[in-house]
Amino acid sequence: MTTTNGSNEAIPTLQLLDPQGNRVTTRGSKGYRDRAAALTTEDLRGMYRDMVLTRRFDDEATSLQRQGELALFAPARGQEAAQVGSAYALRPQDYVFPSYREHGVLQVRGVDPVDRLRFFRGSDHGGWNPTEHNSAVYTIVIGAHALHATGYAMGVQRDGTPHDKHDGTAVITYFGDGATSQGDVNEAMVYAAVNDAPVVFFLQNNQWAISEPTTRQTKTPLYRRGEAFGLPSLRVDGNDVLAVYAATQEALERARAGEGPSFIEAFTYRMGAHTTSDDPTRYRTSDQEEQWQRRDPIDRLAALLRAEGALDEDFEAEIKATGDELGAKLRTGVRALDGGAPVSTFDHVYATPHGTVAAERAWYEAYDAGEPPAPQYAIADSAQGGAR
After folding, report:
1. What are 307-321's pLDDT values in tens digits?
2. Which residue in 123, 265, 361, 375 could disulfide with 235, CB within 3.0 to 4.6 Å?
3. What is the pTM of this model?
4. Per CATH, the architecture of 2-336 is what?
5. Is the pLDDT of residue 376 over 80?
6. Active-site positions?
């Protein structure tokens, strides 16, 4: 398969499942095809289930935001195959660094759905215990977590973790096409490359950095960014869950075996808005949206399962019932979330006491008590041993 960029340049793209749900073989895909062929019927049904539940999570969270129960939400509609396919390639010991849209990855990792929305409700700084699921909390600062992922991977490397494609530890970090323009992502690839860090850079190219198209961010295909830093790099059809799984499994195995970092560009499309504060009708056409609707990743996998006799009415009814339970849990759970006293904002900002945070907390407590507080900048300077 080939895809094109803004200049209509043909770009080799790994595809194992076409938009009609047919298994396909393309040049150079044999090794990947064998990996996908090793997936059992139950594996494929599990992928389908997690993709459908991820979309239900999206729909419920969007509705909750529209009702004023969430401050903001970042939908992942259309990117389910990229997220679920890559997450199925992870092993329990691998560590995930998400941005703020990886709801499908966290679905597979078993993160409680209500906890995933604490961040968007503003209830706390994160939402879940990272050590329980080997998944860091959402990161709103674009691209910053790529450096965190590389640093963590270098730590794994220096801890003497065994190099083994199954039992070793790999790190994966997810980001979007807009983040590739950020210095943090590029710096992370520099450090990862020269240190042979066991990290996979997973780019979900949904073609829109908010309202800015990819064609205004780069003149070359984005997977070549990885090549420029010496990383083995590949573009996959991000709406093809089989291709995503196979490519990610290979990259993670290389990382666990001590063979260094990799870069994967999953070429997909954001069907909905960037966030619930965005209006995509202002910058893209309905024709483009309809074109990508015909490439829906869930419909594609459903077609394969039906053709192979693995998707029947009972299974679909079971998933719908599970989705209804998920929706009810989210509606009840999110409304019950309590952010606590406003002063709790200053808790858990750093792992150890921090002078500036302590000073800001003191300022707020005085303000909240109705006492005339000293100017905030003076308190902060005092905490740092300086004065203005």
Report:
1. 999 999 999 999 999
2. 265
3. 0.91
4. 3-Layer(aba) Sandwich (3.40)
5. no
6. 270, 274, 283
Structure tokens at 251: 């990259």
Nearest-10 crossing angle of helices 41-66, 297-307:
150
Rounded-to-integer distance, Cα 356 and Cα 361, Å: 9
- For residue 22, pLDDT beyond 90: yes
3-class state of residue 343 by DSSP: helix
DSSP string, 151-215: HHHHHHHHTT----TTTS--EEEEEEGGGGGSHHHHHHHHHHHHHT-SEEEEEEE-SEETTEEGG
For the record, the structure tokens of 220 come out as 């070359």
What residue ranges do the domains of the chain occupy? 2-336, 342-383
pLDDT digits (tens, 9 = 90+) for 92-148: 999 999 999 999 999 999 999 999 999 899 888 777 889 999 999 999 999 999 999
Residue 195 C-beta-side C-alpha neighbours within 13 Å: 18
Q: How buried is residue 53: exposed, middle or buried, by Cβ count under 10 Å (0-12/13-18/19+)?
A: buried
Residue type, 41: T
